[in-house]
Amino acid sequence: MKQEFLFNLSHPETDAFLEYKRKREPAFDFRSIPASSGVYGIHPYPAMFHFRVVRQLLSQFSSKSQWVFDPFMGSGVAAVESLIHQRHFIGYDINPLAVLIAKVRTTPLPRALLSRTLQHLIAHFPRIAPTPINFRNIHYWFDDATIEKLSQLRQAIFHLEDSAIRNFFLVSFAETVRRVSRTKYNEFKLLRKKQETSQDVLQTFQATSLRNIDLLTRFYRSHPASTSTVILQEQNILHNPPLENESIDLVLTSPPYGDSRTTVAYGQFSRLALQWLGIEERVDKTSLGSKACEITSDLPSPLLYHSLEKIEARDEKRAREVFAFYKDLLAAIRTIGAIVKPGGHVCFVVGNRRVKEIELPTDKISADFFESVGFTHLQTIVRAISNKRMPSENSPSNVKGKKSSTMRYEYIVVLQKQ
Ligand SMILES: C[S@@+](CC[C@H](N)C(=O)[O-])C[C@H]1O[C@@H](n2cnc3c(N)ncnc32)[C@H](O)[C@@H]1O
Fold first, then answer.
1. Atom of ligand 1 nearest to the CA of 283
2. Contacts of 53 (CB under 8 A, 6+ apart)
3. Which atom of ligand 1 lies at the shortest distance from residue 93's CA?
4. Angle subtended at Cα 416 by Cα 256 and Cα 370, rounded to the nearest 5 degrees
């Protein structure tokens, strides 16, 4: 009820809301289907695509055997959908945990082999000598007994020879790390639980692995994988990606909503798991908008400057941070734009966040940016997003306890290269 009320308040059908070729499409909401169904339930990931949206866009804007590119692929929803719908796929992300999850979700494996390996791990890992592990604050997040067991389990998984099997169990391990730590499981940021709850490592790992085996094998039984090529890489889109110009038919992607400090901190979300895997976490330091800069007047979107002026009047530093994000977003769009074939499409899925209570129309700004590099803005599909998928309320004013509603809609900006 409350949710409906808030949606009505936003008046998505009014003329002002529908400018810039926005079209409210309830058929894209898929509110009765959880985004984490099937293989997408393997390891949570913040702001994951809804697979039904991806499926719909793939069928509308690409055909079999064409190349699809997601430069911000996260947990690989577009990769899986491309694989089962006979599209070739290239995906990048700066987050090594995202790349690992995406690899596991796109690799069908036999149930019997996974079950046998799980039994082997469970039987053998308690006998393995724990290897010393240390990272900053390890004792803040884990108790001693948990550290010892995680260290043994990690070692046992590292010993698995087959890389696909090893990756599968590393993802179950990553989920286990999160569950047995003192972090609040459902928060994207690293926040410590108030009360101690001890979750057993063995039981948690076993239950997680069994669930993941079930999710993976059932999914690929009902959605057989095609023989198309899937390339998944840890790569920053801003750092000269090794892709040929005019080689991609469809870019289907969802960039971060803003800088990592005030929106989703993908690095924080992944840090403990990556530390246990021995990988340094640099995601939040390299994400879009992570480098401070001065505001210049050369970005091709008057609307951006209109919003920036209002933010600047309230907080100059925040205005500079917002600018740094859009400057990087434009750099990413220039690179992406060059890679698309003439006549090819881009579906750019964004959320419009608020800073200092000013809404930033990222869908319109992105459309301006793409038009400046030779694209035609065809339409912006507006879909409602469920509360579970993104935090629906936050405190953009950073006043403790003060909340304002934000991002009740997602915008799918559809563009075509001339
Ligand atoms: C909104 S999420 C994408 C979620 C994805 N659509 C899914 O289904 O899981 C944005 C992603 O962009 C990644 N990212 C941020 N800056 C990046 C950059 N410069 N190059 C590549 N990936 C980046 C983040 O690590 C994050 O995984």
1. 25
2. 28, 30, 349, 383, 412
3. 22
4. 45
Cα gap 87→41, rounded to integer Å: 22
Contact 185, 269 (CB under 8 A): no
Mutation pick for ligand 1 pocket among 260, 287, 352 (CB with most ligand atoms within 8 Å): 287
CA dist., res. 245 & res. 338, Å (int): 5
β-partners of residue 377 are 415
Residues 6 or more apart in contact with residue 232 via CB below 8 angstroms: 73, 76, 79, 90, 91, 99, 102, 103, 106
> Domains of the chain, with CATH numbers?
2-96+225-266+281-417 (3.40.50.150), 111-222 (no CATH)
Q: Using an 8 Å Cβ cutoff, are 108 and 216 in contact?
A: yes
Cα separation, 364 vs 377, whole angstroms: 10
**pLDDT tens digits for range 101-144:** 999 999 999 999 999 999 999 998 888 888 888 998 999 999 99
What pLDDT sits at residue 61?
98
What would you report as the CA-atom Rg of the chain, rounded to the nearest whole angstrom? 22
Determine the Cα–Cα distance for residues 120 and 131; give it in Å rounded to an integer: 19
- pLDDT confidence bin for 221, thresholds 50/70/90: very high
Q: Are 362 and 411 in contact (CB under 8 A)?
A: yes
Structure tokens at 212: 């993941």
Nearest CA to ligand 1 atom 4: 74
Question: For the segment 335-394, what is each residue's pLDDT rounded down to a tens digit?
Answer: 999 999 999 999 999 999 999 999 999 999 999 999 999 999 999 999 998 764 444 444
